[in-house]
Amino acid sequence: MDITLYEVGTSRSLRCRWTLKELGIDYQSIEDRSLLRSDELKQFHPLGKMPVALIDGQPLFESSAICTYFADHADGVDLIAKPGTWGRAKHDQWVSFNLSELEAWLWSTAVNTFVLPEEERIPECIPQNQKMFKKGALVLDRFLAENEYLVEDRFTVTDIIVGYSLNWARRQGLTESFPAIDSYLKRLFSRENCVLPE
Hints:
By secondary structure, the chain is an alpha+beta fold. The protein is 51% helix and 9% strand. The longest helix has 30 residues, at 86-115.
C-alpha cells in the first residue's frame, strides 16, 4: 500500500499513526493544522477534517474506518479479527459502542469548550455529557474487569480505537472511578508502539 496520512496533533489521527506503527507500514505524513477546512483537504474529506488517508491514491476518512482497513490489508501482522467471525462481530460492536456511547459525549464537550467560537458554545451541556459518558464507561469497566482486551483475548486494532477514546476521557478526569479502565490504559501505554499521550 502507498499511504499518505493527513494528521494533526493529538487528534483521532493518533489512532491511524498507532495502527500503522503496530503493522510496521511505512507512510508519508502530512501534519499541517492550516489545512483544516481547506479546499485541498475538502477534496478528500467533505468537511475538511483530519485524519484522512490516501491509500493508493484513494481517499478514506474517519479514523475507525481507516484503522480497520489498514489492519485488514496488512501482510504478516494479525491485528484484527477476521471478517465473518464472531471476533469481527465483537470488533464492530465495541467500535460502534465507543462512537455512540463514549466518544459522542467527549466530542460534544470539546465542541462546547474550545472548538466553537465562545459565543456559539453551550457549556450547560457539559455535565450531562459527563454523566452520559460515565454510563457507557461503566459497561466497559465491568467488561475489562474480567478481560484484558476487547476482542479474542488479545491486543487488536479494536483496542487502539476504543483506547484512544478512553484516554481522551482520562485526560478530562472522567475515568477516576473506573479502576479496570485505568488498568487497561496502563496495558496500552506499556506497548512499544503506543502513541497515546500520558
